[in-house]
Give the backbone structure.
Amino acid sequence: MKVWKYGDNINTDMLFPGKYTYTCSTAKEIIPHLLEDLDSSFSINVKKGDIIIAGKNFGCGSSREQPVLGLKAVGIRAIIAESFARIFYRSSINQGLMLIESPDAVREYSDNDYIELNINKGIIKINRKEYLFPKIPKEINEIQNSGGLLEYTRLKLKKKNK
């Protein structure tokens, strides 16, 4: 697992350049352009299970779904930030991408630190020091475990119709 660390105000154009908004709609088309103007090595080197750590207001900017779809598709396990933009936060829930607000953990983390994430217990461990974050609400956890809001809704309807 690798941790990708970025600063404050990482906007949706940095995550996925707006010039591709109307030409890329599938994960396969989006992935090569993820973070290309911020970190050109990201889309080439990101692996399933990697974590992004960032500062304040992560995901600010326009309300496009491509950044979330792409990050989910490459297997980002979680994004830990000081705070998230509201629309990005909601889009991440809808797509099943795990977001965690933990300003203390973000400020503590330095490149190459050991990090461990226990989502069920609400603990981020950095070099043996633990940072607690609020437990993910049951409904949001179910949406994320289902792979997003669409799959969650399909599963609920399937259960209801049995």
Notes: DSSP finds eight helices and seven strands in the chain.
